[in-house]
Design a protein that fits this description.
Layout lengths: L1 H7 L4 H18 L4 H11 L5 H25 L4 H7 E3 L3 H8 L4 E5 L5 H11 L4 E5 L5 H11 L6 E3 L3 H7 L6 E5 L11 E5 L2 E5 L2 H9 L2 E11 L2 E10 L13 H16 L20
Helix pairs in contact: 2-4, 3-4, 4-7, 5-7
Length: about 290
């Protein structure tokens, strides 16, 4: 399987897009993969839109996802110059300033536009290693391939279960830590609850602890689609040191800021969010 993946990195992107169209047709029209779930979530998020408008969002979200999968495969073999041509950073001076001050940075991003290219393009652009947390894949050879591909420009992806150890071992070295922060915490785990597109939504609170531990600046990574295969990225400061000690049970201003930035992005370009993820897995506890 990893040999197939390596071969795909040498296929021109235009050819991969054609393959992606076939994947879209199968997933959306034939298998109807998660169609009911996605349609229901979009309906609740945008009750003010017409049925035709909501249907268009659902359909385009599947088309965008097919493109992103193909772009990710191509990107794992792309050169630094190719990635820099396709991902433009609007305000790189924010990260450069932290790197110059030898200060760590926590980069929070959602499943929006092409999140796979963010790690690669960031590593190819900035003089700061970017480590990213990821979920281990079940097939060891495929998992090893993705780790190697994502590490090509100095960063190191590490499994979620190793996060605490890796963080402690790197605490003395300025780095950037990339976290996809729009995932749902397990039921019963402490979470930050807020409203997101008309739904009570839970967020992990670990970014707050990481920022305080590292005395790091926290940035929301806002990615937008310029045209097919080309993106623009803007950094938004969510928090920066010095941090005061958090009170017991205090709310999470960092994740609240993340949720507000994410919601703004979804309202502007709803089809660029990963609606196929099962985002709302359980209701907010009554004592929430």
């Amino acid at each position: 399987m990893d040999r197939v993946l390596r071969w795909l990195t040498r296929v021109p992107l235009v050819a991969l897009y054609a393959t992606g169209w076939f994947v879209y047709v199968v997933a959306f029209h034939i298998l109807r993969w998660r169609r009911d779930q996605v349609a229901g979530d979009v309906d609740r998020a945008f009750p003010e839109k017409t049925a035709a408008e909501r249907s268009a969002i659902v359909r385009q979200s599947y088309r965008n996802l097919a493109d992103v999968v193909m772009e990710a495969l191509w990107g794992f073999g792309a050169s630094a110059d190719e990635l820099r041509r396709r991902v433009a950073f609007e305000n790189p001076e924010i990260v450069d300033r932290c790197a110059g001050a030898k200060q760590s940075v926590v980069l929070l991003t959602p499943h929006f536009c092409n999140w796979e290219w963010l790690l690669l393009a960031g590593g190819a652009t900035f003089g700061l290693p970017i480590d990213a947390v990821y979920q281990t894949l079940r097939v060891p050879s495929v998992d090893r391939y993705f780790r190697e591909a994502r590490s090509r420009f100095g960063g190191k992806p590490f499994p979620r279960q190793d996060f605490v150890y890796e963080l402690m071992s790197r605490a003395g070295t300025p780095r950037a830590y990339g976290l996809i922060a729009d995932q749902t915490p397990p039921r019963g785990e402490r979470a930050h609850w807020t409203r997101l597109v008309n739904r009570d939504t839970a967020f992990f609170v670990g970014a707050e602890k990481i920022a305080r531990f590292l005395d790091a600046t926290v940035l929301y990574v806002a990615m937008r689609r310029v045209r097919r295969g080309h993106y623009s990225v803007r950094f938004v400061v969510l928090a920066e040191p010095p941090y005061v000690r958090a009170a017991e049970g205090e709310d999470s201003p960092i994740m609240e800021g993340f949720a507000r930035e994410l919601e703004r992005a979804i309202l502007v370009s709803p089809a660029d969010w990963l609606w196929v993820q099962k985002r709302w897995k359980y209701p907010k506890p009554s004592d929430g």
